[in-house]
Design brief:
mainly alpha; about 65% helix; three-stranded mixed sheet; about 240 residues; single chain
């Protein structure tokens, strides 16, 4: 009887141990997967991203034959205007920070607390790339935490130039439109290499809400913000 109780006690302790270690091991394996993929993307271009796959699935619910507009172009074939416009609009300290702009993050946290919900993330270009590559568009602190971890991985493995190159090639610019080349052709019937300052600034301003601006291309805010970003572009330092 005593031996049976001891065996049962050992079995219970083993289960309790795995109840704690199991989730930790799973989290570690997930992080190792993300790190391996970041290392891969440092050398090889991603054919698709989590955001692309999600949107394609949504499009195919209505049209089984739907496809995305996306064409990869190397860093050299993307207009300097667009690079400067995106940095000016989305992440003015891109060349300086280590993946996270803590001041912007703190401001976003305070804003979220005031409204009692997650309405803004204070995300850098690196964080946005982390989200686009691997995560969803949901707003939660858990997802934000994972985004920060992947952002640090990206900054550790990739140079800034590569981060910006990948970002510009995979970011969403409209319903089913991804990357600088597809955006340039969709909105201006030109190539990413030939975007002028005004066109580039307009594309950059559309990034926070591209599907809306795909349908509403001439709002007062869009015009004002585009002019502001054009003025800021001259002060941008690129990697």
């Amino acid at each position: 009887m005593g031996k049976t109780k001891k065996a049962a006690g050992k079995g219970a302790r083993r289960w309790r141990k795995w109840l704690v270690l199991g989730p930790l091991l799973l989290v570690l394996l997930v992080q190792l997967y993300f790190f391996a993929m970041v290392c891969w993307y440092a050398v090889f271009n991603p054919g698709s991203t989590s955001f692309m796959r999600q949107q394609l699935a949504e499009l195919r619910e209505k049209n089984p034959n739907a496809t995305l507009k996306h064409e990869w172009v190397p860093y050299e074939r993307i207009s300097v205007n667009l690079k400067k416009a995106v940095v000016a609009s989305e992440d003015s300290r891109f060349a300086e920070h280590g993946g996270v702009d803590w001041e912007a993050l703190e401001a976003a946290y305070e804003k979220n607390n005031r409204r009692s919900k997650v309405v803004g993330g204070g995300s850098t270009i690196t964080q946005q790339l982390a989200k686009n590559l691997f995560l969803s568009g949901s707003r939660s602190y858990l997802r934000k935490g994972q985004e920060l971890v992947i952002a640090f991985m990206l900054e550790t493995v990739m140079p800034k130039r590569r981060i910006l190159e990948v970002y510009l090639n995979v970011v969403e610019y409209g319903r089913g439109v991804f990357g600088a080349e597809a955006a340039a052709r969709h909105y201006f019937r030109t190539s990413a290499a030939n975007l002028n300052a005004q066109q580039a600034a307009r594309l950059a301003v559309m990034l926070p809400n591209p599907r809306y601006y795909d349908k509403h291309r001439s709002t007062r805010y869009l015009e004002r913000r585009t002019a502001l970003i054009q003025r800021r572009m001259r002060f941008v330092d690129l990697p």
